Amino acid sequence: MTSISRLPSGAGVGLRLPQIAEVVATRPSVGWLEIHPENFLANPHATELLTELSQHYFISVHSVGISIGSVGGIDRLHLKRVRALVDRINPVFVSGHLAWSTYGGEYLNDLLPLPYNLEALRLIEAHVREVQETLGRRYLIENPSSYIGFRTSMMSEAEFLSELVGRTGCQLLCDVSNAYISAQNMGYDVYQYIDSLPADAIGEVHLGGFTVEEDEASPGAELLIDTHAAAIAEPVWNLYAHAIRRFGARPTLIEWDNNIPLFAALLAEAAHADEVVAGTMALEARCADAC
Ligand SMILES: [Fe+2]
C-alpha cells in the first residue's frame, strides 16, 4: 500500500470547475488543492487542466461517489475510474465520506447517514478494504454532518470511526465543521467528540461554511446545514484551534462549493487557517516552556 512520504505545508482550498482555468492561468500561491473526481471523470478537458496542475501543486482526491455505506456494495466500475484518475495525477490523499449515496444502482445526490452498530461496521469495513485494495493506497474516511440519529446505534460516532481505523488501517479526515454541525444538531459536546477521536489516525482536516435554517420538525428550533456556501463561522475556528492542539497541525482544506466567491476569498480563508495553526502552536510552545 502506498505510504505518504510528502505532505503539503499550509492550508489548501477546494478546486471547483468554474475556477480551474483561472488557477491554471494565474498559478496562485496555495498549499494544495482538493478535487472531487466525479467532476473530472467525464470531462477530458478539465482532466487535462488538472493533470497540468498536478505538476505544480499537491492534489487531493475527495470522492463524493464512492458509497462505502451502501448495502448493495461498491460500484466497481466507478472505483476503477477513480483509480485511473489517481494513477494519472498521483494525489497526496484519497478520501470519502462515512455515508451512503447509492441504492439499487441509482445515485442519490446526497450523503446519507448510517447507524453506528456492528452490522454497519462490518459492511463498511469490507468496503473500505475493497477501496484500499483497488486504489492500492490508504483511504481517508470523513466524519459526516448529521441531522438525525438511529435508535439502532450501539456506539458513538468516534467509537465507530476508531474501530474502523483499527480494523482496516484507514485514516480519518476530520471535518471540524461537520463535527460542529452534528454536535449542535444532535445536542452533544463537540469538544468531547474531538477529544474522543484517535489523534494519530487524523490525516487531513476540512473546514467549511454552514447555513442556519429553521428545523421543520421542531418549529422555532434551528438546524445547521452543511451547505459549504458561506465563510467559516467563528465557533468553528475556535474548535479548529482545539483540534490542532489535540491532533497537532494537519493538512487543512477550505471547502466552499456553493455561492463560490472569488478565488482570492478562498485564499484568505486558507491564510486564516494558517494563522490559527501558527498562533495555536506558538501558544502551546509557550505553555510547554512555562511548565
Ligand atoms: Fe468536508
Give an overview of the whole structure:
Strand 5 and strand 6 form a beta hairpin. The protein has nine helices and twelve strands. The chain has one domain: TIM Barrel (Alpha-Beta Barrel), CATH 3.20.20. The chain has an eight-stranded parallel β-barrel. The protein has a two-stranded antiparallel sheet with strand order 5-6. Helix 1 crosses helix 2, helix 4 crosses helix 5 and helix 7 runs parallel beside helix 8. It starts with 11 loop residues before the first strand and ends with a helix. The protein is α/β, with parallel strands linked by helices and 291 residues long. Bound molecules: fe (ii) ion (FE2). Fe (ii) ion binds next to strand 9. The site of fe (ii) ion has 6 residues, from strand 9.
